[in-house]
Request: fold
Amino acid sequence: MTSRTVAAAAAFVIALALAGTAAAHAHLKRSVPTASGTTAAPTQVEAWFTEDLEPKFSTITVTGPGPNGAKVDKGDTHTDPADAKHLIVSIDGAAPGTYTVNWAVTSVDTHKSQGSFTFEVQK
Reply:
């Protein structure tokens, strides 16, 4: 192999490695309350993701039980100052029933992802 062939092959491998890193999306890793779990009345919902998040472009909304599914989060979604993968929102009380958590996040590499889960508050 010539030095040009080796250099071209090395550049190709580096480009592939960087492309894989740049294509990363933030996925939900875990949450409190646990997705599909049952809990006592929480005062906040916390979610951890696989990538660092852009706080200004990342939200959690929580709707409560009942046919109307009223919004119960306080609209104060923020990242943990010590962990940019950790998103938190406060909620107003938690009457018994099923709650839905919707999240939409943008990772620091500008990729967007979203999802939802439910949790149950015990009576």
Helices lie at 3-22. The chain has one helix and eight strands.
